[in-house]
Amino acid sequence: MSSEDREAQEDELLALASIYDGDEFRKAESVQGGETRIYLDLPQNFKIFVSGNSNECLQNSGFEYTICFLPPLVLNFELPPDYPSSSPPSFTLSGKWLSPTQLSALCKHLDNLWEEHRGSVVLFAWMQFLKEETLAYLNIVSPFELKIGSQKKVQRRTAQASPNTELDFGGAAGSDVDQEEIVDE
Fold first, then answer.
1. How far apart are CA 86 and CA 118, in angstroms?
2. Which pLDDT value is given to residue 178?
3. Closest Cα to residue 129, out of 157, 108, 109, 105?
4. What is the pLDDT of residue 100?
5. pLDDT for 108
6. Following DSSP, what letter does each residue of 58-69 receive, concatenated?
7. DSSP H or E stretch at residue 34
8. Cβ(1)–Cβ(79) below 8 Å
9. Neighbour tally for 101: CB within 10 Å
10. CA atoms of 38 and 55, how far apart (whole Å)
11. What CA–CA distance (Å, rounded) separates 49 from 145?
């Protein structure tokens, strides 16, 4: 690891820790990395429509709620020794209310942001994109439909680590769960 990369990593992690509170950003203890929880800014009077096939709670219909917030997107990352000069951070992105296809689209955009910023630190740009532009980027408008009832498992997105880790999305998906979805491996 070059001293420039090490210094850039330390400076970036220190800056993130000073910008975000402990609920939003945590630096990892054992590795160069951490976890961020991104809370999206929802438009006023944002509605979700919950539908599903569970006879117990939804009876094959649905209901609509006005909400003020959604569960956060969670970005876990690890910085390789040659970041930011050569390699991007390794990362996983999860969000209980997004489909695997939507998460894959966000991951691909984070990859593109790395390419645009290659050689520079990128975590703050990633976090700002996820916080401010996720809804527009995924064309999510009110009312946003959440389908409940599918217990589907998909692979997490990893840039360079553990591609066999599975993530259970807790039954919530934002698109038709019957169709085959293309997932960013």
1. 7
2. 36
3. 109
4. 94
5. 97
6. TTT-EEEEEES-
7. strand 33-38
8. no
9. 19
10. 33
11. 5
Q: Which helix (H) or strand (E) is 48 found in, with range?
A: strand 46-52
pLDDT tens across the length of the chain (185 residues): 789 999 999 999 999 999 999 999 999 988 899 999 999 989 999 999 888 765 555 455 678 889 999 999 999 999 999 999 999 999 999 999 999 999 999 999 999 999 999 999 999 999 999 999 999 999 999 998 887 765 443 333 333 333 333 333 333 333 333 334 455 66
Domains parsed from the chain with CATH numbers: 3-41+69-139 (3.10.110.10)
Q: Can you read off the two tokens belonging to residue 175? A: 């698109």
What pLDDT does 151 receive? 44
Q: Tell me how far apart the alpha carbons of residues 157 and 26 are, in angstroms, rounded to a whole number.
A: 20
User: CA 79 to CA 88: how far, in whole Å?
Assistant: 7
53, 73 Cβ separation under 8 angstroms: no
Whether the bond into 89 is cis, omega within 30 of 0: no
Pinpoint the alpha helices (H) of the chain.
3-19, 100-117, 123-137
**Which residue's entry shows tokens 């360079």?**
160
Cβ contact 180:165 at 8 Å? no
Instruction: Quickly count: other Cβ atoms within 10 Å of residue 178's Cβ.
Output: 8
